[in-house]
Design brief:
66 residues, mainly alpha, 0% strand
């Protein structure tokens, strides 16, 4: 993503982070709804956040390269 100027790159990275936070919150709520402990729900939300952010950054990088 270094080919883009910072004025374009930063909003896209913030959007990717926001989407990842929303995915993590949904994962947390789903885990709590099925009766998991708060610790297990937070761990699941962390995994969802990391996976989603990795995917978003990969897609953004691929879009810039092509």
């Amino acid at each position: 993503m270094s080919a883009l100027p910072p004025a374009v790159r930063v909003p896209w990275l913030l959007t990717a982070a926001l989407v990842s936070v929303v995915v993590a919150l949904v994962a947390f709520m789903l885990k709590r709804h099925v009766g998991k402990s708060p610790t297990e729900a937070v761990m699941g939300a962390g995994v969802a956040f990391a996976g989603c952010l990795t995917l978003c950054i990969g897609v953004l990088t691929a879009a810039v390269i092509s």
